[in-house]
Amino acid sequence: MTKPAFKFLIIISIIFTVEVAKGAEIPNFPTKPIHIIIPGAAGGSNDRETRTIAPFFEKLLGTRIIIDYVPGADGAIAYNKFYKAKPDGYTLLSISTLSPIILEMSREVDYKTKDYALVGTWNAKSQGVFVNIDTWRNFEEFLSDARRKKLSLATVGGVGLLQFKLLENAFDIKFNYVPYKSGGESLSALAGKHVDVVLTYSASALPLLSAKKIKAIATFAPDHDPFLQGVTNFPDLGYSKVYSLVARGGFFAPPKTPSKIIALLEKALSRAVKDGEFLKIAKNSWVAVEFLNSAEATKTLQKDYDIVSKFRQVLTSY
Fold first, then answer.
1. CATH number at residue 215
2. Is the peptide bond before 30 cis (omega within 30 degrees of 0)?
3. 129 and 216 Cβ atoms separated by less than 8 Å
């Protein structure tokens, strides 16, 4: 064999060895069920959304999805537990990007949301302003009364509490804050005229809207709410100073989860949200599908940090 030919074989051998080594780094994942933590009890909006996507995510991953409910302390128990979970891709967290940030910045916790690895977000929702069907015809009438007397406002902590404080801040008004454990409970109180106004997500309100027990007089959605047809957002009402929060629901992995595993999970999620059957179910379940990949969602997470940091004093003033 000539010397050049021998050198060529050596180079080919080295390249082959490197490629085999690279292939060996690709994880054989998944090989067992994946647990998805929901920081709350069964039956809430996050549970409904997660169960909408779970069967399609499960099918594409080729393994069983098990949903674990970890309620308590407005989600802090779940977030702290998840922060210490093994970073192997077999434990995920289903939540909006805003929720753990708000909690992190308003009390003592043992986690940092920035350290979580984002697989991607796949739904987006904003809150609406709901009143009893027998009361104000529009937001202007409501605002006029709210400036004359202290009305009772119900919402759920986290995103709802911050959006409530931002509403007060924008119009320099004060409400009697009435906390509830779920959007459903607060809406039942509104239908029974036990509170004056509720801030919650439109999907939670649709049954009572259909029953003509309550009505929406404004939405915090940046553009429009797909489930509140004909309801105007604040910029279109002429109130551009009202800051609107968008809760993007998605899946987190524990800190230091390998990027190759994140990529595999992200690929499955991106395919799941395009499934025609899933999109049909999501529409019927009042889930607004909007997918952001890991990199896009991570950028959004940083923006959420900036937003909550900006209004941190407003949040902690309650």
1. 3.40.190.10
2. yes
3. yes
The reply to whether 202 and 277 lie within a common domain is no
118 and 252 belong to one structural domain: yes
Whether residue 112 contacts residue 79, with contact meaning beta carbons closer than 8 Å, is answered with no
- Say what the pLDDT of residue 11 is: 47
Closest CA to 53 of 279, 256, 248: 279
How far is CA 101 from its chain centroid? 11
Residue 218 resides in a domain: yes
pLDDT for res 227: 92
How confident is residue 8, by pLDDT bands cut at 50, 70 and 90? very low
Same domain? 131 vs 117:
no
Q: How many helices (H) and strands (E) does the chain have?
A: 13, 11
**How far from 293 is each of 89, 120, 259, 263, 269, CA to CA, in Å?**
16, 5, 13, 10, 9
- The parent domain of residue 171 ranges over 127-237
Pick the closest to residue 245 from 160, 153, 154, 122 (CA basis). 160
The CATH number that applies at residue 117 is 3.40.190.150
Nearest to 312 by CA among 151, 169, 197: 169
At residue 317, the pLDDT reads 62
pTM given for the model: 0.83
Is the pLDDT at 20 greater than 60, yes or no?
Answer: no
The secondary structure of 203-269 as a DSSP string is: HHHHHHHHTTSEEEEEE--SS--TTSTTPPBHHHHT-TTS----EEEEEEE-TT--HHHHHHHHHHH
Confirm if 68 and 36 have CB atoms less than 8 A apart: yes
Number of domains in the chain: 2
Domain identity same for 120 and 131: no
Residue type at 232? T
CA-to-CA distance for 202 and 227, rounded, in angstroms?
A: 7
Domain-located, residue 133:
yes
